[in-house]
From TrEMBL:
Enzyme class: transferase
Protein name: Hexosyltransferase
Family to which the UniProt record says this protein belongs: Belongs to the glycosyltransferase 31 family.
Gene Ontology molecular function, alphabetical: hexosyltransferase activity
Membrane topology: Single-pass type II membrane protein
Any Gene Ontology CC annotation: Golgi membrane
Keywords attached to this entry: Glycoprotein, Glycosyltransferase, Golgi apparatus, Membrane, Signal-anchor, Transferase, Transmembrane, Transmembrane helix
Major subcellular location class: Golgi
EC id: 2.4.1.-
Transmembrane domains' residue ranges: 6-24
Origin superkingdom: Eukaryota
Source organism of this protein record: Diabrotica balteata
GO biological process per UniProt: protein O-linked glycosylation
Amino acid sequence: MSLKIYIGLIVTVIIVLILVYLNVEHKVEGWDKNVDRNVSHYLSHISTQIVPTRFCNEPLLTLMIVTSAPSNKNERQTIRETWGNKENIKKYNGSVTFFIGKSLDPEIQKAILGESEKYDDIIQEDFVDSYYNLTLKSTLIMRLVSSRCLGSAQYLLKIDDDMFLNVPNLFEMIVTKNKSENFLIGLLECNARPIKDPFSKWYSPNYLFNETVFPNFVSGISYLMSMDTTRKLYEAALTTPLFHLEDVYLTGICARKAGIHPEHSSQFIRSAPDDEPCQFKNYIAIHDMTPSRMRNTFYSLSDSSLMGECSNYKEMFNVRQWMWNTLLIPYSRSKRKRLCN
């Protein structure tokens, strides 16, 4: 047998093995075929362990719930001292509360109790906080808000603890949109297909979702909704099998069942722009922010001289802005419209 034929056979065998591997339906960690996916069964065994003393006890425009991991004390403290500080939030009739599950580490759990006593801004539910429980975590938020806050808050913002929130821009969107029913907005994903690569973090086997395309959904990094939407999503979840991708499940599958049509906002972005404050001024929620970067951004945006600096910035980069506004944005909007129709 010649060397070329031998190499060809080896390559063929490798390709066949890869194809066979990819076509085998691998399980998702924590979500194999035998796992109970009835959300009611989980919720009936989960109780709220910690809740702020004045949670939803007074009228609010926006209830901001930050999803955080038990060990992320630094992230929570950074938010308290930057965009989530009480003076900043109070100006816009809002409140910030951190939502976490329990930690299996007794030292972390002890620290959470101390943190809660000091700041009185933590909600802790009795479930193990992990990546594979994110769907359960967000559903628990809907349950709590639906049961305690429908008569006090007008909007719910769910946001991760690695997000920078431009509170004035959020307030401006709420006032401009002025939607009090069936409202759900964020970074919209349209006609996304389930990923079949078992090595992917977002792998989706057929036994969990057997359609070829996901319903349109908004990214779980952050989304804003009217209070009636929280109730409708929660009620839909009670009769919808759990799915491990939190945003697809709640804002896609459950939203479709509830008759909620999520909207897109380009002010919710997945990755932070360059460290230029004038760029940050235009967004509402910015993902992938470290605590140090979050602090720098907040202090820059709080600088009263920023407006003048941004005017200079606009003059310096008018060519780049012209290209963006004239060429890229219309193409992006046109492409999104085609995808979302």
